[in-house]
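Quick check before the chapter quiz. The format below is the same one you will see on the exam, so make sure you can read both the input and the output lines.
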Amino acid sequence: MEKDQKKASDNNDLKDEKSESNKESIKQNDLDPKEKIKELEDKLTRNLAEMENQRRRFEKEKEDAFDYGGFAFARETLNLIDNLERSKKSLENDESLKNSNTLKKTLDHLEVINKDLISIFKKNNIEPILCINKKLDPNFHQAMMEIEDDQKEPGTIIQEIQKGFMMKDRLLRPALVAVSKKTEKNTKNETDDNKSKENQDKSINK
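Here is the expected output.
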């Protein structure tokens, strides 16, 4: 019985499809030649537009794959530079090696390797982000600490903790930095000056 019901349902679906198809056919037959041509032109224009959109999407995906295909690999490779920097600092802080020829030669070799890595990165459109004396930009920099410095405008980068890098116009990783802030003494003086100025203004207005 269930099979009969299913068969009847399928037959009804086929009838509905044929009915819709017949209606569409009748509708087209009712159109005069000019209207038919216009309808066909509209359909053709829509199809061509869709094809062009698909072509552009494909081209964009292909360009991105070519330009940024090694993005994840490049980001992982930055660990090499980090490890070199850590090795240099570790050797420089080793009291048993200070002022020795061994230390100087080792640091020189590490610097050569570091320069070679940076050169390879540049050839592949990977550039370090400039930081020192720049204003903090959250698009490229991440502030890790504040350091009191009255010689710099507040929010100026005065120390680079970890290098940041760009791959063409994309951020591989932000630079970790320390930014300047005014000393508490000067901040207090500025606050007192502002209050004094406000009181003077109020007195004049009276």
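If your answer matched, good. Helices lie at 2-30, 33-68, 71-92, 101-123, 184-205.
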